[in-house]
Specification:
CATH class of the largest domain in chain A: Alpha Beta
Shape of chain A: globular
Order of helices and strands of chain A: EHEEHHEHEHEHEHHHHHEEEEH
CATH architecture of the largest domain in chain A: 3-Layer(aba) Sandwich
Number of domains of chain A: 2
Helix content of chain A: 25-40%
Strand order of the largest sheet of chain A: 3-2-1-4-5-6
Largest interface: A-B, 54 and 54 residues
Oligomer: homodimer
Number of helices of chain A: 12
């Protein structure tokens, strides 16, 4: 233990809301992590599609935070030629936070980034669902063989510790069912519909509040839930399942009348994703379902998310909460780094 | 990785319900753990107050399970002179499951067992709350300095992953509040009182069903909750807090009329333990409290337990479930072994 380094260089790849939140989180927490956890994380690289910058002594996070949403190419030291390959080849980082946008068909560009980083001995934490959806067996095996971290907790609900609950809290048990309310936006819209808004009104309100995207399809059509569910089924149940195998039904077809009928009967409609073992294989589906007051999902309101695991020897486990937004999401990506540090995977 | 052993010898210390359940769990799961987790756990020692037995090739778990609750000294190979010190000094085990009864004042005999095992390079998983309550800072530091496992998840709710949720799922965040329904027996009695039984009737029913002890004081007077809470406050919040600092109120003073009044108002009474930071120190209390339908504890019924953490950067986390009984408790003690194996602490 005495020869173990505690200094690690972090590179952010993809500088949107989550990248900026990570800079703010480092400002808020890195001194605390140094004193209480003993890990010294320095942000040395930031990369976006047009280039980025590097400083071996650590970038100035205060200046970066103050730079805000302004274009990165106006930040001091920006180099349009600086790129991912150079960052890895020159060993300018020990850990990357892969935050590029999700492409659920190809996994790119995140897939190439993660693969290349792991091949070169660099630890990875990621928010990018695409590469995990497309290539989990390959990437997890690569990380394991190299003794590297591949942190995916941020891909399946951010601060909600769905992977930790399913993988660590169920260690040694056999998980036969995963079910969850995995998408906060649809849960918010459903809650508002219970208050009397119709689907379109509730969606518009959610969009105005910044909860739903301008293009809400991934959320309201159930695909975001399905992607998270498939990742959990792979990571937790070792399921050989693809997104195309999952019947997915969203919430856009729900009427205010259906909501009212269920409410009057003491039930609520939730968009539920479920994976289960059936004859040696893992199956999954996503659809709106009605739950009564005795069901743990009944009281999961507004933007909250939850997940439930059913196991043989450790019983059922229900987990809800985890704040929404960029800072909690960044905190979940860094949580995997801290866990890997504590358990000696990052050395 | 290639030089890492995957064979570990387990010794059970204290052979009551939990020890027997561990034997049954090993029968059910050790082959699965070998093939899916890659760890080969062999039970080589069993010790109880009167002696025990040892087999370097692994004890016959089937014969032990068949032996049931019969006195150990009638089991083949029993040696009244075999003792804890010999087991450790002769290095007959790599891991002990310390299952002796809790003494919350002295921590003994578990405290001496755990200290001696760790000093001699032996990993520990334990159900014994006493040593953790009395000597957590000393024992955790000793384990850390020696690079050893000290698994305490079984002490704070068994299968309910309260330590994993508070320590791992909140890694990197600052937890300011822990609260929970930490005792299943009292929660069951309160549920039955809501059905119209008075306290004495509900207690007798719980005793007849084997849910409450013949001497129910530890449970109904709130001490079991307080002990678990103090352990969580130490392990999760690094709190310098002793059991004697905690005001504890149990459920025996509750009347059926109070329960009815709360139920009619849409509330339920739960025995809640809470720890929080106040002016740089951690404080805690245990008392019955009334919660309304919006509170996550409202729907935690019957024998279930739950815990909730409030953090800065990862938001709130609510965890409930985890089956009750000896097998789930044994599974929680072995969960810490499997996690330590996966993360390379057990090598």
């Amino acid at each position: 233990m005495s020869f173990r380094s505690n200094k690690f260089r972090l590179g952010i790849v993809g500088y949107g809301n989550l990248g900026r939140a990570t800079v703010n989180l480092l400002l808020q927490k890195s001194e605390h992590w140094r004193t209480s956890d003993g890990i010294d994380l320095a942000l040395t690289c930031v990369l976006d599609v047009n280039g980025g910058f590097y400083n071996a002594d650590g970038l100035n996070c205060e200046a970066l935070a103050a730079h805000g949403r302004a274009s990165l190419d106006s930040f001091n030291g920006f180099d349009a030629k600086f790129n991912f390959k150079e960052m890895i080849d020159e060993r300018l980082v020990d850990i990357i936070a892969e935050y590029t946008p999700t492409n659920k068909e190809t996994g790119e560009p995140g897939l190439s980034h993660i693969r290349y980083a792991l091949q070169n001995g660099i630890h990875v934490t990621t928010s990018n669902k695409g590469p995990i959806l497309v290539a989990w067996p390959e990437l997890s095996l690569l990380a394991r063989n190299k003794g590297l971290m591949l942190g995916v907790g941020c891909t399946t609900g951010g601060a909600l510790p769905s992977v930790i609950a399913g993988r660590d809290a169920m260690a040694g048990a056999d998980t036969s069912i995963i079910e969850g309310v995995l998408n906060g936006t649809t849960n918010y819209i459903l809650s508002r519909m219970e208050s009397g808004l119709d689907y379109i009104e509730a969606l518009k309100e959610a969009q105005a509040a910044g909860i739903a995207e301008t293009d809400p399809g991934m959320d309201v059509d159930g695909w975001d839930s399905a992607v998270k569910l498939v990742i959990l089924a792979k990571v937790v149940m070792n399921g050989n399942i693809d997104l195309k195998d999952v019947p997915v039904k969203g919430i856009s077809g729900l009427s205010i009348k259906e909501m009212e009928t269920e409410l009057k009967a003491g039930r609520r409609i939730k968009l539920i994703g479920r994976a289960w073992r059936e004859g040696g294989v893992v199956r999954a589906s996503v659809a709106p379902e009605s739950v009564d007051k005795t069901h743990p999902f009944y009281s999961v309101s507004a933007k909250d998310k939850c997940v439930r695991y059913v196991s043989d020897t450790l019983g059922d486990l229900f987990v809800s909460g985890g704040a929404s937004g960029p800072i909690p999401a960044a905190a979940s990506a860094m949580r995997d780094v801290l866990l890997a540090w504590r358990t000696g995977i990052i050395v």
